[in-house]
Amino acid sequence: MDSFSWLLVWFLQYGYFALFFLLLFGDLYLPLPSNLALLGAGVLSHISINGLHFNFFIAAGVGFIACVFGDTGAYYLSRYFTSPKRRARAEVRHASYRKVAHHLREHPIITVSATRFIGFLSPVTSSLSGFSKLPYRIFIVGDCIGNAACVLIYMWVGYTAESVSGNLVELVSFASGIFLLFGVIYAGSIILLREK
Fold first, then answer.
1. CA atoms of 148 and 10, how far apart (whole Å)
2. Considering only CA atoms, which of 91, 70, 76, 42 is closest in space to residue 146?
3. Where are the domains of the chain?
């Protein structure tokens, strides 16, 4: 519980604003626990702590808007503040960049959507999408699909785990299993798409 206490204190002081800013700045390169914030919002939509109780749907809406704004910010920062010379240099020098850019061009919506579930990959993918000049309309479709699913699933996991167990340790272990499952599904979809 001690590792979550700062998050709980922040939620108690600022409510939905804390959720919004954690998710917004977590998607704008700051190392903030955005997925943990969604789990916490799910827990707080099931129980009340010191009078704080989130409405599930309002918290989900706030989370969705914050994630989309943060991802859009990362996309545009990378797209407009990267010189064409740097883009050309990355294309020539880095084979890993060429592979990622090719993958984004081949499967943009699946890649952008799937990486929303793994917190640290969200700003990286948003930045690479902007850097590689993926059209914004394609990026935003994948981003909205991925964020809608991510916010609802993480909050549902928090809500359900709290209602079933009432124990945050069990919640974290359950969430770790969910993270692993998402990673396996993403890797499997990449392998299947590559073989086709």
1. 24
2. 70
3. 2-195
